[in-house]
């Protein structure tokens, strides 16, 4: 999840503090998720994904397989 969060942050230009404020968690928590030091709950991951405008799969770094 950490690489996907970092990639989304770069693409959208958001900061860790902006995400933290928007979803009501600490900047330190978002930093830990972004660096892979901690894993968010499903609820928190869903809120981060919603804020970043992506799916949970995209946030987790999953890619669709081609048929």
Automatic annotation (TrEMBL):
Write down the SMART domains for this protein, in alphabetical order: HTH_XRE (SM00530)
Q: Identify the Pfam families for this entry.
A: HTH_3
Task: Tell me one GO molecular function of this protein.
Answer: DNA binding
Q: What is this protein called?
A: Putative DNA binding, helix-turn-helix domain containing protein
Question: What residue stretches are annotated with the HTH cro/C1-type domain?
Answer: 15-59
């Amino acid at each position: 999840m950490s690489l996907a969060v970092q990639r989304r942050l770069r693409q959208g230009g958001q900061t860790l503090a902006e995400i933290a404020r928007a979803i009501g968690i600490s900047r330190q928590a978002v930093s830990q998720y972004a660096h892979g030091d901690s894993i968010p709950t499903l609820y928190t991951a869903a809120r981060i994904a919603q804020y970043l405008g992506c799916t949970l799969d995209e946030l987790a770094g999953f890619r669709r397989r081609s048929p």
